[in-house]
Amino acid sequence: MKIVTLVGSLRKDSLNRNIAKALLALAPKSLDLKLIEIGNLPLFNDDLDGDHAPEAWTHFRKQIQACDGVLFVTPEYNRSVPGCLKNAIDVGSRPYGKSVWSGKPAAIISASPGATGGFGANHHLRQSLVFLDMPTMQQPEAYLGHAGDLLGPDGTLTNEKTRAFLINFIDSYAFWVAKLRDNNA
Q1: Of 33, 53, 74, 122, which sits 20 to 30 A from 145 (CA to CA)?
Q2: Across the strands, what pairs with 143?
Q3: What is the pTM of this model?
């Protein structure tokens, strides 16, 4: 199953990007995880959409349409999702009535250097995904607090409990996406 992974941080060595890379390495063979960059998407402006939408929007929408599910990995900015992730969501939800998100099974991991692990961003994103008609995995929830302590200097995962948790998370997501696909077949 083709799963698109979107990271809500644009920083090359962000905690969330490194968590996403760890998930790509830990994913079961049934999932083909691909990291899609969102930093090149122009800010959504309805005046630019339609027959002459920016190429970056068109390419992004095609990538989302072609996938079987979406994995969101995000930090928390001001108790919400970063602007780049919200912009990607908006770009994919337009033009009105042609959302590429509808029906795509989603999962969310939020990570932060703070204790709450991006809880606010995680739940704020869930609100948007309900509106976008994206069935979102409920359990296990994933909030990685003190995320900087989970990674080595090179950005690789060093905490074995977190590795076990992430394996359980990504295996649960694979099972859930397959179950939804089979129920809709």
Answers
A1: 33
A2: 110
A3: 0.96
